[in-house]
Design a protein that fits this description.
It contains no helices and twelve strands. The protein is mainly β and 135 residues long. Strands 1, 2, 3, 4, 6, 7, 8 and 10 form an eight-stranded antiparallel sheet that branches. Strand 2 and strand 3 form a beta hairpin. The radius of gyration is 16 Å and the shape is globular. The N and C termini lie far apart (36 Å).
Length: 135
């Protein structure tokens, strides 16, 4: 049986056996837009069956990720630049992880390149008169 995890756009992936290691040429992977303006991503590995995702995210200066909730632990290592939210700032060479249930919006005033790991996808939320709703 083939694994449910894959690296979209990885050359030679189809010829590998189910248990073979995947050596990913990250420079060869395409940047893809996310639903948030000014944030692009390279998916390093994703598993559609479980929701697992590890990806590089490139934030343009001033980009903002709208209010969302982490369904499971989320981890981010900042390679370049910085990210900030209501709780603090994480800068190049540093790391932040957020517990299951954490809600925040994030922004990058000067741009950033980050490696983020998710066990399940975020839930994006909107705020209105009745409070916070699922988008």
């Amino acid at each position: 049986a083939q694994p449910t995890a894959s690296t979209p756009g990885m050359k030679g992936q189809d010829g590998l056996t189910a248990l073979a290691s995947r050596y990913v040429d990250v420079g060869d992977l395409p940047w893809k837009p996310t639903p948030c303006k000014g944030i692009d991503m390279k998916v390093l590995v994703e598993d559609s069956a479980t929701g697992l995702l590890t990806a590089l995210f490139r934030w343009q200066p001033g980009a903002e990720l709208t209010l969302h909730e982490h369904v499971e632990i989320e981890q981010t290592f900042v390679l370049e630049g910085s990210l900030e939210d209501e709780e603090g700032e994480v800068t190049a060479g540093n790391y932040v992880w957020r517990p299951k249930g954490n809600r925040h919006s994030a922004r990058s005033p000067n741009g950033a390149l980050v490696l983020s790991m998710f066990l399940k996808p975020n839930i994006f939320l909107t705020e209105d008169k009745e409070g916070i709703q699922l988008r």
